[in-house]
Write a structure and sequence with these properties.
Elements lengths: L13 E4 L24 E6 L2 E6 L2 E6 L2 E2 L9 E2 L6 E4 L5 E6 L12 E6 L10 E4 L6 E5 L3 E5 L4 E2 L8 E9 L4 E12 L7 E2 L9 E2 L1 E10 L2 E8 L8 E7 L5 E9 L17 E5 L5 E5 L8 E7 L10 E6 L1 E7 L5 E6 L3 E6 L8 E4 H8 L31 E6 L2 E8 L12 E12 L1
Parallel strand pairs: 15-21
Antiparallel strand pairs: 1-15, 2-3, 3-32, 4-32, 5-6, 7-8, 8-9, 9-10, 11-12, 12-14, 13-14, 14-15, 16-17, 18-19, 19-20, 20-21, 22-23, 23-24, 24-25, 26-27, 27-28, 28-29, 30-31, 31-32
């Protein structure tokens, strides 16, 4: 199960039985959530060549944000920037993750919770606050209905080594019924440029490096390719890159850079360089990468292609979608789908095989029309429309999403509703929702 040079950690593995209340992780033949996709509970949206059915949002969790204050960060609140993500086990169960700490990236502790669903998202087990990551992780399918969670945030292998990094892995076994934790079980080796550490409130050994593995992974040419981003030591602006693994995701090395910071935009407000990214197989065998360059409506996503299994990439072009953590999938019928936002949450769809033309569906708007909660005050679940954003409403969602195809052309979209950084009152809750979506060609 644990291979190669990391076998020494076998004795350090911490195995924890985590069976969600009322759930039976690991059961084969998982439900595809047929009740979620009942047309009587769905609303159609007609696009050119497509009809998109959107179902009632399912609440995964809800909670009031709380104050996390220390010198220099008194304004920070936790559970108001949840950055949710989602993955599917080989047998169909779902795992949802979301941040429990604040978004300062200078926290005294990093913590993410997770929940398991065995019926395609219709119902969710209890939360487990077990993951020492803030940024969403990459999940890789493994035998025995398991998922390997690759750490998003890494440490220097030895203090002062800016070229070799380690982090823990989490192996969710048997559909989430058991979790194995291995300290420093993932390695990123022989990095081609020096990477600095990010000082924080934690002990020096726990300072992260300026290199992040987040997004997704694909099997390409007999090895795994995964997405990430980071800064070169002493420079500003992020570089989006591809790493490769030949041992199933435990050891990674640099493969290629998709894009770096554009000098024409450096210094502009909310511009970041090239960072959060997803890659997808196209029908012609090429890879398509979609990535973030900033935060806000003015910063559209960028896109690049690779014809040689990720070793080189085309010059990026600009997509109509904006702005953070794009999730990209190709459905069973060949439709390309991107979920993203900030402001708002949108599902972008393309019916052509290379994603040249896109149409959008306003997910946040549908949430506001359809999300219900008995006896809740107005605003508890509402995501402020884009036209009404202000300094007091902020984004009202992190606009991070998880997007999974649970059955042919049936998607589930995970997203959050955040209040302002400081909740208005005890009803101004943070939520994580799941929306069922079915797409059909006309």
């Amino acid at each position: 199960m644990i291979r190669g040079s990391i076998h020494k950690w076998v004795l350090a593995a911490l195995s924890i039985m985590l069976i969600a209340a009322g759930a039976t992780p690991g059961k084969t033949g998982q439900s595809t959530g047929s009740s979620l996709f009942s047309r009587s509970n769905m609303q159609p949206v007609d696009l050119q060549g497509l009809r998109v059915w959107l179902g009632e949002p399912v609440q995964v969790t809800a909670q009031l944000g709380w104050k996390m204050g220390w010198p220099g960060y008194e304004w920070e609140h936790a559970f108001t920037h949840l950055t949710p993500d989602m993955a599917k086990f080989p047998n169909g169960e779902l795992i949802a993750t979301y941040a429990l700490d604040s978004d300062a990236q200078s926290n005294p502790v990093f913590s993410t919770g997770y929940q398991i669903s065995t019926d395609s998202g219709a119902h969710w087990g209890r939360r487990y606050s077990m993951l020492m990551q803030h940024i969403p992780m990459i999940f890789i399918s493994k035998p025995d209905d398991s998922l390997l969670a690759v750490p998003s945030e890494l440490f220097e292998r030895t203090e002062g080594d800016g070229y070799n990094f380690v982090g823990p892995y989490y192996l969710f076994q048997h559909g989430g019924g058991r979790m194995e934790f291995v300290p420093d079980g993932v390695r990123v080796l022989d990095w081609p440029w020096p990477v600095d550490v990010l000082p924080g409130q934690q002990p020096r050994d726990n300072w992260h490096v300026g290199l992040v593995l987040t997004g997704n992974a694909l099997e390409v040419g007999g090895k795994l390719l995964a997405t990430g981003y980071g800064q070169k030591k002493g420079e500003k602006g992020e570089h989006a890159f591809i790493v490769s693994s030949e041992d199933g995701g435990f050891t990674w090395r640099y493969l290629s850079t998709i894009a770096g910071p554009d000098p024409a935009f450096m210094g502009q407000r909310s511009y970041e360089g090239a960072d959060e990214m997803n890659i997808v197989h196209l029908t012609d065998g090429d890879l398509m990468a979609v990535f973030r360059v900033g935060s806000g409506r003015k910063w559209n996503l960028r896109r690049a292609y690779s014809h040689d299994e990720g070793r080189t990439w085309s010059r990026p072009d600009v997509l109509p979608a904006w702005s953070v953590y794009p999730q990209v999938i190709r459905t069973s019928s060949g439709i390309l789908a991107i979920s993203t936002g900030r402001p708002g949450i949108y599902l972008w769809l393309s019916t052509d095989p290379r994603g040249e033309n896109w149409q959008s569906v306003d997910i946040a708007g549908l949430n506001n029309l359809r999300a219900t909660e008995p006896d809740a005050k107005i605003g508890t679940f509402e995501i402020t429309p884009n036209d009404y954003l202000s300094e007091t409403t902020k984004w009202q969602t992190s606009s991070y999403t998880g997007l999974v195809e649970v059955a042919p052309n049936r998607l589930v979209l995970l997203y959050d509703r955040d209040p302002e950084r400081i909740p208005r009152d005890s009803n101004d809750l943070s939520h994580v929702f799941l929306m069922p979506i079915e797409i059909e060609r006309k």
